[in-house]
Amino acid sequence: MDANRRHPQSAQESSRRRGAAQGHRNAATEMLDRMRHLVDTVAVALDGPLPTQKDRVVETWARIQEYYTPQRQDDLRKLRVTDTTIPHHLEAMLKLLAREMIETESSVLEQPLEFGPCIEYLLQFHVLSDLVDFADADMPRGIRKYVVLFFDAFIDGIPLGLLPESAIRLPLVAIMHQCQTIVEASPTTPVSMLRRQEQQQQQQPGGSEAKPHATSAAFRLGQGYHSIHNDKAAVVLCHDLLRLVVTLFRRLQAHGSLVHL
What's the sign of the alpha-carbon dihedral 107, 108, 113, 114? Predict the structure, then answer.
């Protein structure tokens, strides 16, 4: 009997001890939470809030725009793009955009016209149109190639529902037309060779019966790049343009309603 009477008391004592231990742990956890909050508050007060992805995109774009101030125009004409940090900033911007697309992928698939703050900034401030203008001026020299590569990576990763946006669609068409004009004007690209060959055939008597010096098949897109030694920039641009077109059509295949683009 005495043992039975003592047993409930020991059980109650053990329960009280467990409750007290749990209370101490809760108090310690609460204290740690308060300390973390205090440290975060002090850090924000000293350093300011941590930059968001949009903040980083804005900062990166500002670094690119610094090259295009009126005071730097003369110097910019003398530089090659590889002498600047523009390629690095374009790559950094692509990484930030890709990270946002991955993070918002599920919601974008459900509502294709919704997008994150980084994409919103690009659309609102016409970043793509400015890049096309930089490429058109080709300042610094060689930037056009990097702009085309930027569009290629951007189109490859962007949600399909955003392609019809005018701030994306119009610059995309503009950069492709710009590259096409340059490629066709170059005397060494397969496109211009094919165009001149067709013109010569039309001018010769007999039209299609005339035998040209080379068949048009020899100048089809994608052939003869390594045998061309002049105007290499135009040849490389032709290759980059083809890759952009292939990327665009590959994306459009998955969404037939966007073919009208």
Answer: positive
